[in-house]
Every structure is written in structure tokens, then in C-alpha cells.
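Same chain as my last thread, 90 residues:
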Amino acid sequence: MMARQRANLGFDTDDASLDPAEWEIGTPAPARPAEGTARKAAEATGFRSRETVAPPPAPAAIPAPVQGQGGAGAQTSDGPERTVQSESAP
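reply #2:
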């Protein structure tokens, strides 16, 4: 048998007065810092990252000369490709 009564926590025992629409739902998510903020803070404190740094982009390729000006384009043939058939021994 229980010798003491339960403590009243302030909740109603009446479920009809319970309205979840009145509840405020959490706090909004914090705003993200601007791009590069973490990198600037790390550089200011002398932090050295162990992550690899992406190499700089390759320069644009120089186009090969067109046919008739010499170079790679002049060495191609416009005719059908030739294949060499090996002679089979009888």
C-alpha cells in the first residue's frame, strides 16, 4: 500500500483540455555562417589542415592546327582505313 500521495506536477487529468496546436515547436535552426568564414578563422589562428588541397584547374588546351597548315591535322587521311591481313600458313 502507498503511504504517500503522488506529487502534483501541474498536468490536468482531463485529456479534453489538451491541445497540441498551442505548443511552440522547438527553436529554429541557427543560421549557417557565410561561405569561407571557417577558413578565415582557421588561417587567423594558424591552423594547418591535413586535407589535400585541390590542384588548380588545368589551362585551356590549345587547339591543333587545321588540315593544310601542317601539324596533327595534316597527318590524317580522308580515305578509308587500311587493315593488314596476315597470310596464314597452309
